[in-house]
Amino acid sequence: MIKRLQRKFVVIVAVCLLIVEVLIIGVINFLNIRSVNSENDNLMQMIIENDGKIPDFFRRDERDDKMRRERFNVDDLPPKLKNNFNEETRYQTRFFTVDFDPNGEVVRINTGQIAAVDSEQAAEYAKQVIDSGKTEGYTDSYKYKVSEKDTGKTVVFLDVRNSMYNKNRFMLISVLVAAGGYIITCLLVIIFSKRAVRPAIESFEKQRRFITDAGHEIKTPLAIISANAEVIEMTSEESEWTKSIRNQVTRLDGLVKELLQLSKMEEDEVKLVFTEFDLSNAALEAVQPFEALAKTSGKELELDIREGIMINGDESAIRKLCSILADNAVKYADDGSVIKVSLSKTQSGRHAKLCVSNICAEPPKDTDKLFDRFYRDDKARSHDDGQPSGYGIGLSIAQAVTLSHKGKINCDVNGNTVTFTVTLRTVKFK
To answer: Which residue of 62, 120, 193, 425 lies most exposed, with the fewest beta carbons within 10 A?
Structure first.
Protein backbone atom coordinates (compact mmCIF):
# COMPACT_ATOMS: atom_id res chain seq x y z
CA MET A 1 0.00 0.00 0.00
CA ILE A 2 2.74 2.46 0.97
CA LYS A 3 4.81 1.67 -2.11
CA ARG A 4 1.75 2.06 -4.36
CA LEU A 5 0.95 5.39 -2.72
CA GLN A 6 4.54 6.56 -3.18
CA ARG A 7 4.58 5.52 -6.84
CA LYS A 8 1.25 7.18 -7.47
CA PHE A 9 2.50 10.40 -5.87
CA VAL A 10 5.63 10.39 -8.05
CA VAL A 11 3.63 9.67 -11.23
CA ILE A 12 1.07 12.41 -10.51
CA VAL A 13 3.78 15.00 -9.81
CA ALA A 14 5.78 13.94 -12.90
CA VAL A 15 2.75 14.12 -15.19
CA CYS A 16 1.62 17.49 -13.82
CA LEU A 17 5.14 18.89 -14.12
CA LEU A 18 5.43 17.59 -17.70
CA ILE A 19 2.14 19.22 -18.69
CA VAL A 20 3.15 22.55 -17.13
CA GLU A 21 6.60 22.51 -18.78
CA VAL A 22 5.18 21.62 -22.19
CA LEU A 23 2.68 24.47 -21.91
CA ILE A 24 5.34 26.95 -20.77
CA ILE A 25 7.83 25.96 -23.49
CA GLY A 26 5.08 25.96 -26.09
CA VAL A 27 3.81 29.41 -25.10
CA ILE A 28 7.31 30.92 -24.88
CA ASN A 29 8.34 29.62 -28.30
CA PHE A 30 5.00 30.58 -29.83
CA LEU A 31 5.36 34.14 -28.57
CA ASN A 32 9.00 34.30 -29.69
CA ILE A 33 8.18 33.04 -33.20
CA ARG A 34 5.21 35.34 -33.42
CA SER A 35 7.31 38.33 -32.35
CA VAL A 36 10.08 37.59 -34.85
CA ASN A 37 7.62 37.01 -37.69
CA SER A 38 5.74 40.19 -36.83
CA GLU A 39 8.95 42.19 -36.84
CA ASN A 40 9.93 40.76 -40.23
CA ASP A 41 6.47 41.51 -41.64
CA ASN A 42 6.61 45.10 -40.43
CA LEU A 43 10.12 45.52 -41.84
CA MET A 44 9.01 44.20 -45.23
CA GLN A 45 5.97 46.47 -45.19
CA MET A 46 8.24 49.45 -44.49
CA ILE A 47 10.43 48.47 -47.45
CA ILE A 48 7.36 48.28 -49.68
CA GLU A 49 6.09 51.67 -48.51
CA ASN A 50 9.51 53.26 -49.12
CA ASP A 51 9.78 52.13 -52.72
CA GLY A 52 11.94 49.09 -52.02
CA LYS A 53 14.35 50.79 -49.64
CA ILE A 54 14.98 51.22 -45.93
CA PRO A 55 15.07 54.97 -45.17
CA ASP A 56 18.27 56.51 -43.85
CA PHE A 57 18.24 57.08 -40.17
CA PHE A 58 19.90 60.46 -40.92
CA ARG A 59 19.26 62.53 -44.02
CA ARG A 60 20.79 65.62 -45.56
CA ASP A 61 19.17 69.02 -44.97
CA GLU A 62 18.86 70.53 -48.48
CA ARG A 63 17.87 74.03 -47.27
CA ASP A 64 21.50 75.15 -47.43
CA ASP A 65 24.81 73.97 -48.79
CA LYS A 66 26.03 72.58 -45.47
CA MET A 67 26.18 68.84 -44.91
CA ARG A 68 24.00 69.13 -41.88
CA ARG A 69 21.99 66.01 -41.13
CA GLU A 70 18.78 65.91 -39.23
CA ARG A 71 17.28 62.97 -37.36
CA PHE A 72 14.79 60.74 -39.19
CA ASN A 73 11.29 60.93 -37.73
CA VAL A 74 10.99 57.56 -35.96
CA ASP A 75 7.34 58.26 -35.19
CA ASP A 76 6.59 57.57 -38.84
CA LEU A 77 7.53 53.92 -38.35
CA PRO A 78 5.08 51.16 -37.44
CA PRO A 79 4.69 50.93 -33.63
CA LYS A 80 6.41 47.53 -33.42
CA LEU A 81 9.51 48.84 -35.22
CA LYS A 82 10.10 51.98 -33.18
CA ASN A 83 12.18 50.23 -30.53
CA ASN A 84 14.18 48.17 -33.04
CA PHE A 85 14.88 50.73 -35.74
CA ASN A 86 18.21 52.48 -35.37
CA GLU A 87 21.23 53.72 -37.30
CA GLU A 88 22.38 50.18 -38.14
CA THR A 89 19.05 48.76 -39.29
CA ARG A 90 19.69 49.65 -42.92
CA TYR A 91 23.05 47.87 -42.92
CA GLN A 92 21.95 44.86 -40.86
CA THR A 93 18.95 44.04 -43.03
CA ARG A 94 19.57 41.85 -46.05
CA PHE A 95 16.88 41.97 -48.74
CA PHE A 96 16.25 42.37 -52.46
CA THR A 97 13.26 43.54 -54.46
CA VAL A 98 11.90 42.90 -57.93
CA ASP A 99 9.37 45.18 -59.63
CA PHE A 100 6.98 44.03 -62.36
CA ASP A 101 4.92 46.13 -64.75
CA PRO A 102 1.20 45.44 -65.33
CA ASN A 103 2.16 43.04 -68.14
CA GLY A 104 4.26 40.90 -65.79
CA GLU A 105 7.61 42.00 -67.15
CA VAL A 106 10.52 42.72 -64.81
CA VAL A 107 11.26 46.44 -64.84
CA ARG A 108 13.59 46.83 -61.90
CA ILE A 109 15.75 44.64 -59.70
CA ASN A 110 17.38 45.89 -56.52
CA THR A 111 20.07 43.60 -55.07
CA GLY A 112 22.16 46.32 -53.48
CA GLN A 113 21.34 45.15 -49.96
CA ILE A 114 22.36 41.52 -50.41
CA ALA A 115 25.42 39.63 -51.63
CA ALA A 116 24.08 36.08 -51.86
CA VAL A 117 21.77 36.76 -54.81
CA ASP A 118 22.50 38.37 -58.17
CA SER A 119 19.99 40.00 -60.50
CA GLU A 120 19.37 36.85 -62.51
CA GLN A 121 18.65 34.76 -59.40
CA ALA A 122 16.47 37.53 -57.98
CA ALA A 123 14.37 37.63 -61.14
CA GLU A 124 14.01 33.82 -61.07
CA TYR A 125 12.87 33.88 -57.43
CA ALA A 126 10.35 36.63 -58.19
CA LYS A 127 8.90 34.84 -61.25
CA GLN A 128 8.41 31.67 -59.20
CA VAL A 129 6.51 33.66 -56.58
CA ILE A 130 4.32 35.39 -59.17
CA ASP A 131 3.59 32.10 -60.92
CA SER A 132 2.59 30.48 -57.61
CA GLY A 133 -0.10 33.11 -57.06
CA LYS A 134 0.80 33.51 -53.40
CA THR A 135 1.16 36.93 -51.81
CA GLU A 136 3.48 35.92 -48.98
CA GLY A 137 5.43 32.95 -47.73
CA TYR A 138 8.91 31.41 -47.68
CA THR A 139 11.26 30.24 -50.38
CA ASP A 140 14.60 28.79 -49.38
CA SER A 141 15.90 31.09 -46.62
CA TYR A 142 13.92 34.12 -47.78
CA LYS A 143 10.58 35.43 -46.68
CA TYR A 144 8.67 37.19 -49.43
CA LYS A 145 5.72 39.53 -49.69
CA VAL A 146 3.96 40.73 -52.85
CA SER A 147 2.60 44.25 -53.09
CA GLU A 148 0.24 45.27 -55.88
CA LYS A 149 0.15 48.84 -57.15
CA ASP A 150 -1.27 50.66 -60.16
CA THR A 151 2.14 50.51 -61.79
CA GLY A 152 2.51 46.78 -61.29
CA LYS A 153 3.73 44.42 -58.58
CA THR A 154 6.65 44.56 -56.20
CA VAL A 155 8.08 41.44 -54.59
CA VAL A 156 10.20 41.95 -51.50
CA PHE A 157 12.50 39.14 -50.36
CA LEU A 158 13.89 39.36 -46.82
CA ASP A 159 16.83 37.20 -45.76
CA VAL A 160 15.58 35.44 -42.60
CA ARG A 161 18.44 33.00 -42.11
CA ASN A 162 19.48 34.64 -38.87
CA SER A 163 15.89 34.79 -37.67
CA MET A 164 15.32 31.13 -38.46
CA TYR A 165 18.59 30.16 -36.82
CA ASN A 166 17.79 32.21 -33.71
CA LYS A 167 14.29 30.76 -33.48
CA ASN A 168 15.56 27.21 -33.80
CA ARG A 169 18.38 27.80 -31.34
CA PHE A 170 16.00 29.41 -28.85
CA MET A 171 13.64 26.45 -29.21
CA LEU A 172 16.45 23.92 -28.78
CA ILE A 173 17.90 25.68 -25.75
CA SER A 174 14.49 26.08 -24.11
CA VAL A 175 13.67 22.40 -24.70
CA LEU A 176 17.04 21.24 -23.36
CA VAL A 177 16.77 23.47 -20.29
CA ALA A 178 13.21 22.30 -19.68
CA ALA A 179 14.20 18.63 -20.12
CA GLY A 180 17.14 19.02 -17.76
CA GLY A 181 14.99 20.78 -15.20
CA TYR A 182 12.29 18.13 -15.57
CA ILE A 183 14.74 15.26 -15.02
CA ILE A 184 16.32 16.95 -12.00
CA THR A 185 12.91 17.75 -10.52
CA CYS A 186 11.69 14.18 -11.04
CA LEU A 187 14.81 12.82 -9.34
CA LEU A 188 14.24 15.16 -6.40
CA VAL A 189 10.58 14.11 -6.24
CA ILE A 190 11.60 10.45 -6.19
CA ILE A 191 14.19 11.11 -3.47
CA PHE A 192 11.84 13.13 -1.27
CA SER A 193 8.59 11.32 -2.13
CA LYS A 194 8.83 9.15 0.95
CA ARG A 195 9.10 12.26 3.10
CA ALA A 196 6.11 13.76 1.29
CA VAL A 197 3.90 10.75 2.02
CA ARG A 198 5.28 10.27 5.52
CA PRO A 199 2.07 11.52 7.20
CA ALA A 200 0.09 8.95 5.22
CA ILE A 201 2.67 6.28 6.07
CA GLU A 202 2.42 7.09 9.75
CA SER A 203 -1.36 7.04 9.53
CA PHE A 204 -1.36 3.64 7.81
CA GLU A 205 1.11 2.24 10.32
CA LYS A 206 -0.96 3.48 13.25
CA GLN A 207 -4.09 2.04 11.67
CA ARG A 208 -2.41 -1.29 11.06
CA ARG A 209 -1.05 -1.45 14.59
CA PHE A 210 -4.45 -0.54 15.99
CA ILE A 211 -6.19 -3.26 13.96
CA THR A 212 -3.59 -5.85 14.91
CA ASP A 213 -3.55 -4.93 18.61
CA ALA A 214 -7.33 -4.58 18.78
CA GLY A 215 -7.79 -7.90 17.01
CA HIS A 216 -5.62 -9.73 19.52
CA GLU A 217 -7.21 -7.92 22.45
CA ILE A 218 -10.73 -8.74 21.26
CA LYS A 219 -9.99 -12.44 20.88
CA THR A 220 -9.61 -12.96 24.64
CA PRO A 221 -12.96 -11.44 25.72
CA LEU A 222 -14.66 -13.20 22.84
CA ALA A 223 -13.30 -16.52 24.04
CA ILE A 224 -14.46 -15.75 27.58
CA ILE A 225 -17.93 -14.70 26.40
CA SER A 226 -18.23 -17.86 24.31
CA ALA A 227 -17.15 -20.03 27.26
CA ASN A 228 -19.58 -18.29 29.61
CA ALA A 229 -22.41 -18.84 27.14
CA GLU A 230 -21.57 -22.54 27.02
CA VAL A 231 -21.51 -22.72 30.85
CA ILE A 232 -24.90 -21.04 31.00
CA GLU A 233 -26.28 -23.55 28.50
CA MET A 234 -24.81 -26.42 30.55
CA THR A 235 -26.32 -25.20 33.81
CA SER A 236 -29.55 -24.12 32.14
CA GLU A 237 -31.13 -24.85 28.84
CA GLU A 238 -30.24 -23.22 25.53
CA SER A 239 -32.28 -20.08 25.06
CA GLU A 240 -32.63 -17.45 22.38
CA TRP A 241 -30.33 -15.23 24.44
CA THR A 242 -27.46 -17.72 24.65
CA LYS A 243 -27.95 -18.55 20.98
CA SER A 244 -27.77 -14.85 20.10
CA ILE A 245 -24.61 -14.49 22.20
CA ARG A 246 -22.90 -17.34 20.37
CA ASN A 247 -23.98 -15.97 16.96
CA GLN A 248 -22.58 -12.53 17.74
CA VAL A 249 -19.35 -14.04 19.08
CA THR A 250 -18.96 -16.00 15.85
CA ARG A 251 -19.71 -12.87 13.85
CA LEU A 252 -17.17 -10.76 15.76
CA ASP A 253 -14.56 -13.50 15.50
CA GLY A 254 -15.00 -13.60 11.72
CA LEU A 255 -14.83 -9.80 11.52
CA VAL A 256 -11.56 -9.73 13.44
CA LYS A 257 -10.03 -12.41 11.24
CA GLU A 258 -11.01 -10.62 8.03
CA LEU A 259 -9.77 -7.28 9.34
CA LEU A 260 -6.39 -8.81 10.17
CA GLN A 261 -6.25 -10.51 6.77
CA LEU A 262 -7.12 -7.29 4.95
CA SER A 263 -4.56 -5.31 6.94
CA LYS A 264 -1.82 -7.81 6.13
CA MET A 265 -2.72 -7.90 2.44
CA GLU A 266 -2.67 -4.11 2.14
CA GLU A 267 0.74 -4.00 3.79
CA ASP A 268 2.02 -6.81 1.55
CA GLU A 269 2.63 -8.96 4.61
CA VAL A 270 0.68 -11.88 3.19
CA LYS A 271 3.08 -13.94 1.12
CA LEU A 272 1.03 -15.20 -1.78
CA VAL A 273 2.21 -18.38 -3.45
CA PHE A 274 1.86 -18.03 -7.21
CA THR A 275 1.42 -21.22 -9.16
CA GLU A 276 -0.25 -22.10 -12.42
CA PHE A 277 -3.74 -23.47 -11.80
CA ASP A 278 -7.06 -23.93 -13.56
CA LEU A 279 -9.04 -20.77 -12.91
CA SER A 280 -12.17 -22.29 -14.43
CA ASN A 281 -12.27 -25.16 -11.92
CA ALA A 282 -11.35 -22.90 -9.00
CA ALA A 283 -14.11 -20.40 -9.82
CA LEU A 284 -16.67 -23.17 -10.36
CA GLU A 285 -15.84 -24.88 -7.05
CA ALA A 286 -15.90 -21.56 -5.19
CA VAL A 287 -19.23 -20.39 -6.61
CA GLN A 288 -21.27 -23.62 -6.78
CA PRO A 289 -21.90 -23.85 -3.00
CA PHE A 290 -23.90 -20.61 -3.26
CA GLU A 291 -26.51 -22.25 -5.51
CA ALA A 292 -28.24 -23.80 -2.51
CA LEU A 293 -28.11 -20.54 -0.58
CA ALA A 294 -29.60 -18.69 -3.55
CA LYS A 295 -32.47 -21.21 -3.86
CA THR A 296 -33.39 -20.85 -0.19
CA SER A 297 -33.83 -17.13 -0.86
CA GLY A 298 -35.93 -17.70 -3.97
CA LYS A 299 -33.11 -16.72 -6.28
CA GLU A 300 -31.37 -18.53 -9.11
CA LEU A 301 -27.64 -18.77 -9.70
CA GLU A 302 -26.73 -19.05 -13.38
CA LEU A 303 -23.16 -20.11 -14.25
CA ASP A 304 -21.41 -19.54 -17.57
CA ILE A 305 -17.79 -20.51 -16.99
CA ARG A 306 -15.50 -21.28 -19.89
CA GLU A 307 -13.32 -24.32 -19.36
CA GLY A 308 -9.56 -24.51 -19.54
CA ILE A 309 -8.63 -21.00 -18.49
CA MET A 310 -5.26 -21.15 -16.76
CA ILE A 311 -3.78 -18.41 -14.60
CA ASN A 312 -0.61 -17.87 -12.65
CA GLY A 313 -1.63 -16.76 -9.16
CA ASP A 314 -2.47 -17.73 -5.60
CA GLU A 315 -5.29 -20.26 -5.90
CA SER A 316 -6.65 -19.87 -2.37
CA ALA A 317 -6.77 -16.07 -2.71
CA ILE A 318 -8.56 -16.31 -6.07
CA ARG A 319 -11.08 -18.76 -4.59
CA LYS A 320 -11.67 -16.28 -1.78
CA LEU A 321 -12.23 -13.55 -4.37
CA CYS A 322 -14.83 -15.62 -6.24
CA SER A 323 -16.61 -16.53 -3.00
CA ILE A 324 -16.80 -12.90 -1.88
CA LEU A 325 -18.35 -11.75 -5.16
CA ALA A 326 -20.83 -14.64 -5.27
CA ASP A 327 -21.80 -14.15 -1.61
CA ASN A 328 -22.22 -10.42 -2.20
CA ALA A 329 -24.51 -11.04 -5.20
CA VAL A 330 -26.66 -13.57 -3.34
CA LYS A 331 -27.10 -11.27 -0.37
CA TYR A 332 -28.09 -8.15 -2.27
CA ALA A 333 -30.01 -9.57 -5.25
CA ASP A 334 -33.77 -9.08 -5.38
CA ASP A 335 -35.96 -12.05 -4.49
CA GLY A 336 -36.86 -14.12 -7.51
CA SER A 337 -34.07 -12.65 -9.62
CA VAL A 338 -31.28 -14.39 -11.52
CA ILE A 339 -27.64 -14.04 -10.45
CA LYS A 340 -25.20 -14.51 -13.31
CA VAL A 341 -21.58 -15.60 -12.92
CA SER A 342 -19.46 -15.79 -16.06
CA LEU A 343 -15.80 -16.42 -16.76
CA SER A 344 -14.35 -15.81 -20.20
CA LYS A 345 -11.33 -14.39 -21.97
CA THR A 346 -10.95 -10.87 -23.29
CA GLN A 347 -10.73 -10.10 -27.01
CA SER A 348 -6.96 -9.88 -26.82
CA GLY A 349 -6.80 -13.37 -25.35
CA ARG A 350 -4.28 -12.28 -22.73
CA HIS A 351 -6.60 -11.79 -19.77
CA ALA A 352 -9.41 -13.57 -18.00
CA LYS A 353 -12.61 -11.71 -17.15
CA LEU A 354 -14.82 -12.76 -14.25
CA CYS A 355 -18.25 -11.09 -14.14
CA VAL A 356 -20.79 -11.42 -11.34
CA SER A 357 -24.07 -9.58 -11.84
CA ASN A 358 -27.33 -9.34 -9.94
CA ILE A 359 -30.54 -7.33 -10.12
CA CYS A 360 -31.14 -4.82 -7.35
CA ALA A 361 -34.27 -2.64 -7.01
CA GLU A 362 -32.20 0.25 -5.64
CA PRO A 363 -28.64 -0.14 -6.96
CA PRO A 364 -25.78 1.70 -5.23
CA LYS A 365 -24.98 5.18 -6.49
CA ASP A 366 -21.37 5.57 -5.38
CA THR A 367 -19.88 2.42 -6.88
CA ASP A 368 -16.31 3.52 -6.14
CA LYS A 369 -17.07 3.56 -2.41
CA LEU A 370 -18.21 -0.06 -2.44
CA PHE A 371 -14.58 -1.14 -2.03
CA ASP A 372 -14.09 1.01 1.07
CA ARG A 373 -14.02 -0.70 4.44
CA PHE A 374 -17.39 -0.98 6.20
CA TYR A 375 -19.21 0.90 3.44
CA ARG A 376 -22.78 -0.18 2.70
CA ASP A 377 -25.30 1.96 0.87
CA ASP A 378 -28.13 2.82 3.24
CA LYS A 379 -30.86 1.81 0.78
CA ALA A 380 -29.47 -0.54 -1.80
CA ARG A 381 -27.35 -2.51 0.64
CA SER A 382 -29.66 -2.76 3.61
CA HIS A 383 -31.51 -5.99 4.42
CA ASP A 384 -34.92 -6.83 5.70
CA ASP A 385 -34.82 -10.54 4.88
CA GLY A 386 -33.10 -11.66 8.07
CA GLN A 387 -29.84 -12.54 6.33
CA PRO A 388 -26.63 -11.38 7.90
CA SER A 389 -25.52 -8.17 6.25
CA GLY A 390 -21.84 -9.06 6.29
CA TYR A 391 -18.95 -7.09 7.73
CA GLY A 392 -18.64 -4.47 5.00
CA ILE A 393 -15.04 -5.40 4.20
CA GLY A 394 -15.56 -8.31 1.82
CA LEU A 395 -15.23 -6.17 -1.28
CA SER A 396 -12.16 -4.51 0.22
CA ILE A 397 -10.56 -7.93 0.48
CA ALA A 398 -11.65 -8.71 -3.09
CA GLN A 399 -9.97 -5.53 -4.27
CA ALA A 400 -6.79 -6.31 -2.32
CA VAL A 401 -6.64 -9.81 -3.84
CA THR A 402 -7.14 -8.41 -7.35
CA LEU A 403 -4.47 -5.76 -6.93
CA SER A 404 -2.02 -8.31 -5.53
CA HIS A 405 -2.44 -10.19 -8.83
CA LYS A 406 -1.93 -6.96 -10.83
CA GLY A 407 -5.51 -7.08 -12.01
CA LYS A 408 -8.45 -4.70 -12.08
CA ILE A 409 -11.82 -4.79 -10.35
CA ASN A 410 -14.72 -2.43 -10.86
CA CYS A 411 -18.46 -2.15 -10.39
CA ASP A 412 -20.86 -1.00 -13.10
CA VAL A 413 -24.55 -0.17 -12.72
CA ASN A 414 -26.80 -0.46 -15.77
CA GLY A 415 -30.38 0.24 -14.80
CA ASN A 416 -31.11 -2.16 -11.94
CA THR A 417 -28.28 -4.53 -12.84
CA VAL A 418 -25.12 -4.38 -10.72
CA THR A 419 -22.07 -6.06 -12.26
CA PHE A 420 -18.70 -6.66 -10.64
CA THR A 421 -15.95 -7.32 -13.18
CA VAL A 422 -12.51 -8.68 -12.38
CA THR A 423 -9.79 -8.71 -15.01
CA LEU A 424 -6.71 -10.77 -14.21
CA ARG A 425 -3.41 -10.52 -16.03
CA THR A 426 -0.74 -13.09 -16.94
CA VAL A 427 -3.28 -15.59 -18.18
CA LYS A 428 -2.63 -18.45 -20.56
CA PHE A 429 -5.27 -20.39 -22.38
CA LYS A 430 -5.19 -24.02 -23.33
So the answer is: 62
Q: What is the pTM of this model?
A: 0.53
How many Å apart are CA 407 and CA 402, to the nearest integer? 5
Judge whether residue 15 has pLDDT over 50. yes
> Which is it for the CA torsion 13, 18, 20, 21, positive or negative?
positive
Where do the domains of the chain lie?
198-266, 275-429
Q: What is the pLDDT of residue 267?
A: 59
Which residue did the predictor score with more confidence, 86 or 20?
A: 20
Q: Note the CATH architecture for domain 275-429.
A: 2-Layer Sandwich (3.30)
